[in-house]
What does this fold into?
Amino acid sequence: PVKGRTLKVFAYRVHAHGHGDVNSAYRVRDSAWAPLAKGDPQWPQAFYPTTEVYDVKDGDYIVGQCTYHNDENKWVYAGSTHNDEMCNVYLMYYT
It folds into this structure.
């Protein structure tokens, strides 16, 4: 949960390795999910503007979600090397 000041989310960056398809972030308030960011982690690694400036307030939750594909005949594990996979969504905000 978010505690303290209201965050004003205005941009995002997503990151995964070769198996990542879509990374997303949501604000959850009173059981209602609102999308904050959604991007293809295979695009250039840059911050992209959100469609509007989103308020994330005290008591809200920020939830990340990532989808992947695996066309290889091997297990893919979470980790920091390029042979592993990760689910990163970076949000730029001001208070």
Notes: The mean pLDDT is 96. Strands lie at 7-15, 20-29, 32-39, 48-56, 61-68, 88-94. The two ends are 16 Å apart (CA to CA). DSSP finds no helices and six strands in the chain.
